[in-house]
Amino acid sequence: MAYLDTPIFGFVISIIAFQIGLFINKKTKKAIFNPLIIAIGLIIILLAYFDIDYEVYNKGGSIITFFLGPATVVLAVPLYKQIERLKSSGVPVLVGIIVGCTTSIVSIFYLSKLFGLTGPVSISLIPKSVTAAISSEISAQIGGIPALTVAMTILTGIIGNVIGSYIFKVFRIHDEIAVGIAMGTAAHAVGTAKAIELGEVQGAMGSLGISVAGLITVFLAPWLLQILT
C-alpha cells in the first residue's frame, strides 16, 4: 500500500467521497444530506476503519485545501455581474454585514460563558463565521487554536447551508440581497454555495458578504474581545 504515502490517496478519496455526497444529495433532494457532510463522514469512517493516520490522508487533502483561496476569489464573478445593483444598496449592505459580524462575535462570547467554555477553546470559536483561510489566521492572532477554529468554521458553513433556506421561510425573508448577504456573512463560502442555488443576485451578495465580513472580522474580533474581557 505504498500509494498511501503519496498525495494521490488523500486527493482521490476526497473527490470520490464528495461525488458520492453529490449523488446522494441529488437523489434525495434533502438539504440535510449535504454533500460536504456526507463526504466528511465517509472519509472519517474510511480512515478509522483502516486505521489510517490523518497526516497520511492530509498529504493529498491539503492540496484541496490549497484551492479554497482561489475558489473563494472566483465567487467575485457573480458579484461583478450585479455591481450596479450593489451600488444602489451599498450603505444598507455594509451596515448589515457589520451588524452580522458584531452579532456573531458577541453571541459566541456570551454563549461560551453560558456553557462554561473558557480560554483558547472559547476564543477559537469567535471567528467561525468567516472563510477558513481567514478564520484560522484570526484565531492565531487572538490566542485561539487554529485547527479547532477551522473545524468550527466548516461546521458553521454546513449548518448555514442546510438550515438557511428554512430560516428565511419561517421569518418570511424574500429580499434577494438580504438573503445573499445573510448567507455570506453568517456561513461564508459554504453558505454562499447555497445562495448561488437560490439565484444569481443571492450568490453575488453572498460573495460580497464573505469578503467584507472577513475584512471586518480581522479588525473587529481583537477589538471586541478586548472590550468584552
TrEMBL record:
Topology in the lipid bilayer is annotated as:
Multi-pass membrane protein
Give the record's keywords alphabetically.
Answer: Membrane, Transmembrane, Transmembrane helix
Q: Which Pfam families match?
A: LrgB
Cell compartments where the protein resides: Membrane
Mainly resides where? Answer: membrane
Give the source's domain of life in one word.
Answer: Bacteria
Q: What is this protein called?
A: LrgB family protein
Task: Locate the transmembrane regions by residue number.
Answer: 6-24, 31-50, 62-80, 92-111, 145-168, 177-196, 208-228
Protease listed as a keyword? no
